[in-house]
Design a protein that fits this description.
This protein has 21 helices and 14 strands. It is an alpha/beta fold. A six-stranded mixed beta sheet has the order 5-4-6-2-7-8, with helices on both faces. It has a four-stranded antiparallel beta sheet with strand order 11-12-13-14, with helices on one face. A two-stranded antiparallel sheet has the order 1-10. Helix 1 packs parallel to helix 4. The longest helix is centred in the first third of the chain and has 33 residues. It is globular and about 85 Å long. It starts with a helix and ends in a 7-residue tail after the last helix.
Length: about 650
């Protein structure tokens, strides 16, 4: 008797959650039809993808909204079955969910104004807009909205009635239930199981090392970025943007001044495109510190890469734009850096962008991305799709879990072999990128490579040597292929890792990663320069190298054309400008440059030479940083990341 009631109670809870999941799909359909003119490209297959992708976002949002309901419904106590307690749970379920349902309905009508789901910044804008004063009161706002969009009111009341009706039908009606120790233990086990499943549902994945899903993960299911608002839901959008400090529009300069100090419009003019294959290799954590050639030392953990660099174009001053793996892909593949927020995790990841995938596909390239971790890990599959890359290959496509390292993904040497075999079958011209995963904590190596490499000062050094060796095997495998000599290879690292040298521990050193351009058919490219190169320079530089002929938006430069004016911008508790062999650190709150370092003569950044710099030069640096901020923030807010003539 008691067991049946406990199971029935759990089933009723699950049915209630499934019911809300069904309501969200109905509201999504309403969202689609009301805003149909913005989604005209969607066909039946696209909508199927949207529904499929939306489930994890809906489940996550519904579980967040119902956390208290779930917790209280599963308490291992006979209190749960008392009439008054059941009535309280029913009311809590109704009113928690009607809030989530209502914001979905309101957002249906709000979409045409912002072309996106409502985010938490809406409430900030509301509080700062003056609506709470005088005639622009909250009541007046609600009245005006209700008048203009009167359909909101009956829809909310209909949903309230339907939800209340279903809640009543799934309410236990038991006069009494006596619990003994056996059923307390059973209830506790069921509660722990349900709470565990709830945590996985909140995160959007059963893979514990995957990050909790964010708005950008919806890109995996979209054929265009504009479809992302259909895939997510408004409660999810509000929850995921609640803790993110929103950016605001800047008006530091007029357009003429802005273009003078920093112009994100990049122009390419050419009569004929040279359709070379493009391969971008992103090495996990393989910082500049580990290379002998960059440090002018005989001790090296990258013997193969050192030999390759001698035949390549690189610089002594190459930098990432972020400090996390999630920052690398948008910077490298779309020339969009990380600033005071991670683009991949932000609401702006739903903006329309043109990545290398889009741009090269439009001129006849096939496109692909490889990552040895489980598909969906780190949101890379989604970001690859957002950057316009058609085909994604992850651990799920590798089909041999014997080569799994047990934590991150397929061992690098094995996955590089898989990568090479796939490239051999790609239609030319092709653009493909691979992101490795072995050179990472906990610093494990395949059994056959243990004790093969020198130990170094840190276990990471063995991993670096292993990945370097895996890359050597890859090049040995592909160098006899027909496509090899018609290929530009770009090799970099996503970010830095463990540092042994003081030079790499400061606010400049933590961004030092290699950026290498290697063309086996162009010996004249081989050069070791001192110009400043950043991740966001990679996309425009590749396009410049193949004589691309259309303008784009990019936050980096073509290093083969604009090398004399090159600079890098990154963010480390404030904006940093790297230019003229100097590091300039700017405080946005005080609107002042705080530090300037000569990183050539002072690599440990010990001496602040701010007072030694002329006021005119300091003003130039400040204008450049502020122009970048204005350009970046305003383009994000205005969804203006595609060139418009």
């Amino acid at each position: 008797m008691q067991l049946n009631i406990i199971i029935k109670s759990v089933l009723y809870l699950i049915l209630r959650l499934i019911f809300i999941l069904f309501i969200y799909q109905l509201l999504r359909l309403g969202y689609y039809y009301y805003n149909y003119e913005y989604f005209t490209e969607i066909d039946i297959y696209s909508y199927y993808r949207i529904i499929k992708g939306s489930l994890k976002f809906d489940i996550s949002a519904i579980l967040y909204i119902n956390l208290l309901v779930i917790f209280l419904s599963l308490l291992p106590s006979n209190l749960v079955f008392k009439k008054g307690y059941q009535k309280f749970i029913k009311s809590l379920f109704i009113y928690c969910n009607i809030i989530g349902i209502s914001v979905n309905i309101i957002d249906m009508f709000y979409y045409p104004y912002v072309k996106n789901r409502m985010t938490f910044s809406f409430f900030k804008e509301f509080s700062q807009s003056g609506l709470i004063q005088n005639k622009n009161s909250v009541f007046q706002f609600i009245l005006d909205f209700g008048t203009d969009y009167w359909l909101t009111i009956p829809l909310v009341f209909i949903m309230l009635y339907v939800t209340s009706y279903f809640a009543a039908k799934t309410t236990l009606n038991i006069k009494s239930l006596r619990f003994n120790i056996k059923y307390i233990i059973l209830s506790s086990i069921i509660a722990i199981l349900m709470y565990t499943l709830t945590v996985f549902g909140l995160r959007g994945s059963f893979i514990y090392k995957n990050r909790p899903i964010t708005i950008s993960n919806a890109g995996k299911y979209a054929t265009k970025n504009s479809q992302i608002p259909l895939i997510i839901n408004t409660p999810f959008s509000l929850i995921r943007t609640a803790h993110i400090k929103d950016i605001s529009k800047k008006e530091y300069y007029n357009k003429q001044e802005l273009d003078q100090y920093y112009d994100a419009n990049k122009y390419f003019r050419s009569n004929q495109i040279n359709k070379k294959n493009i391969v971008i290799i992103i090495l996990e954590s393989m910082a500049t510190e580990y290379y002998g050639i960059y440090n002018n030392t005989e001790i090296t953990y990258t013997p193969f890469l050192d030999s390759l660099i001698s035949k390549s174009f690189t610089s002594e001053n190459t930098f990432s734009n972020g400090v996390k793996s999630i920052d690398a892909m948008p910077a490298i593949l779309a020339s969009i850096p990380s600033t005071n927020f991670h683009f991949s995790l932000s609401k702006y990841s739903t903006n329309n962008i043109q990545g290398l995938g889009n741009l090269l596909e439009n001129i006849g390239y096939s496109t692909s991305f490889f990552h040895g971790a489980p598909n969906g890990s780190m949101g890379f599959e989604s970001m690859a799709n957002i950057c316009g890359i058609d085909n994604f290959y992850g651990m799920d496509n590798y089909n041999n879990k014997n080569d799994y390292d047990g934590l991150w993904g397929i061992w690098d040497d094995k996955f590089f072999t898989f990568f090479a075999e796939k490239l051999n079958r790609h239609k030319e011209p092709f653009f493909s990128s691979i992101f490795t995963c072995s050179s990472h904590h906990p610093y494990k190596l395949p059994i056959e490579y243990q004790n093969k490499f020198i130990k170094g000062e840190h276990p990471m050094h063995e991993c670096v040597q292993y990945t370097d060796y895996a890359l050597k095997k890859f090049f040995n495998k592909v160098k006899e292929e027909e496509w090899y000599n018609n290929t530009l290879f770009v090799i970099t690292a996503d970010h830095t890792n463990i540092s042994m040298k003081e030079k790499y521990k400061n606010s400049l050193g933590i961004f030092r990663v290699p950026i290498i351009f290697f063309d086996p058919n162009n010996n004249s490219l081989a050069k070791r320069s001192k110009i400043i190169i950043q991740h966001t320079d990679i996309m425009p530089s590749i396009l410049g190298y193949i004589n691309y002929n259309k303008p784009i938006i990019a936050f980096g430069n073509n290093i083969f054309k604009d090398s004399l004016s090159n600079f890098a911008i990154n963010y480390h508790n404030g904006y940093q400008l790297i230019i003229d062999e100097k590091l300039i650190i700017y405080n946005e709150n005080s609107n002042e440059i705080q530090y300037i370092y000569d990183f050539i003569n002072d690599p440990l950044l010990k001496k602040n030479i701010l007072k030694e710099i002329t006021p005119l030069k300091s003003k130039y640096y400040k204008n450049k940083i502020r122009a970048f901020i204005q350009n970046y923030d305003n383009r994000m807010i205005n969804n203006n990341l595609i060139y418009e003539s």
